[in-house]
Amino acid sequence: MQEGVPTAHEGVSAVPPPHRLEPKRRLDPSGRHEPPQRQDDDDVLTVDELVVWLRLSESTVLRLLSERAIPARKVGHQWRVRRGRVRDWLDGRE
């Protein structure tokens, strides 16, 4: 063991301070801070996954998608939705 080098049991934490773990906040065009983007926001969901996540019936999810209430795209005959866009919609930002 080297002299003068603190070890973890001497009170030095190997975990960075909390401010270093938080995602950086971005400014939106108006200069306000946008909420940090979550890592799973780019996940693409199917109708079946939306049904489970939103705890809605399949017919309700399909109706919301066809009415464009939930922001989504059709790929062939199937709907695809980004998780982050649904979060924004749920929060009233979309």
TrEMBL record:
Residues 44-93 form the Helix-turn-helix domain. Residues 1-42 are annotated as: Disordered. Residues 19-39 have a biased composition (Basic and acidic residues). It comes from the Bacteria. One of its GO terms (molecular function) is DNA binding. NCBIfam families: excise. This is DNA binding domain protein, excisionase family. The lineage of its organism: Bacteria, Bacillati, Actinomycetota, Actinomycetes, Frankiales.
